[in-house]
Design goal:
By secondary structure, this protein is α+β, with helices and mostly antiparallel strands. The protein is 37% helix and 23% strand. One of its GO terms (biological process) is signal peptide processing.
Length: 262
């Protein structure tokens, strides 16, 4: 007895899980090859560092959509032409296929995210980095940035949460703030990315000279008057710096989309 397959179902299955629609129409090897292509491509974009920037993230998303869409269309066409035996493959294999791909996805995007993908996305919920980062911005960070440098915008862990600030100094630097201007190792860096209208409070205008401890960074928010940074929470251990912000990949303000940071 021969049967037909549902084209729409095959299309939706491949959209949900890459290659699943191909398995549905009996092209098991095709489905496995398409899944392998997707995951190998994602990992290659990650390990080469290409995915850790806004443009690279767009390329990654486009690649995933393209592979899924192509396999979904192929699945729908094959389902329309299908005249093979019903019930091939068995439901047990469908469960195994989907389960294995879910497990692989969790491993890549969670357990081994740093070594395999090298990036992570964040939503900005506060205004401590205005105007560089606005509330509602979606940023991408490089999880393998190397040692932090002065001027870097970094993601760090503090009190069980992750937050974003700018590195004002690293271990061994001498810092001070005079009339709102940052002095690092005797060099006047001006307002250091902070707009003048956001450097008005007493605690933003003056900071006595001090030494940044070895293995630590001193962080400041660009919106200096309303930023909970190292002036209040203290210096941050380098080991608690989890990534460097490379840009904005989405924002409520279209002009900010795609902004890159050096």
């Amino acid at each position: 007895m021969k049967s037909s397959k549902f084209s729409l179902l095959a299309f939706l299955m491949s959209c949900l899980v890459v290659g699943w629609g191909l398995v549905y129409v009996g092209r098991i090897k095709w489905g496995i090859r398409v899944a392998a292509l997707l995951y190998v491509g994602v990992v290659l974009l990650g390990v080469t560092g290409l995915a850790a920037t806004p443009v690279g993230l767009y390329v990654l998303l486009a690649f995933i959509i393209l592979v899924k869409l192509a396999s979904a269309i192929a699945s729908a066409v094959l389902a329309r032409r299908y005249d093979g035996p019903p019930g091939v493959p068995r439901k047990r294999f469908h469960v195994l296929y989907v389960g294995v791909l879910i497990a692989i996805t969790l491993l890549i995007f969670d357990a081994f995210r740093a070594p395999l993908l090298g990036f992570k996305n964040y939503y900005i919920p506060s205004g401590s980095m205005i105007p560089t980062l606005s509330i509602g911005d979606y940023i991408v960070s490089d999880l393998r940035p190397g040692a932090p440098k002065a001027g870097d915008i970094v993601v760090y862990r503090w009190n069980g949460t992750e937050a974003v600030k700018r590195v004002a100094g690293v271990g061994g630097d001498t810092l001070a703030i005079v009339n709102g201007e940052l002095i690092r190792n005797g060099e006047n860096l001006g307002l250091f990315h902070a707009p003048a209208e956001r450097v008005k409070k007493d605690y933003s205008l003056t900071l006595a000279p001090f030494l940044v401890e070895p293995g630590h960074v001193y962080l400041l928010g660009d919106n200096r008057d309303v930023s909970n940074d190292s002036r209040f929470m203290g210096q941050v251990a380098v080991e608690d710096v989890v990534g460097k912000v490379t840009g904005i990949w989405f924002s409520n303000e279209p002009v900010r989309i795609g902004t890159r940071f050096p």
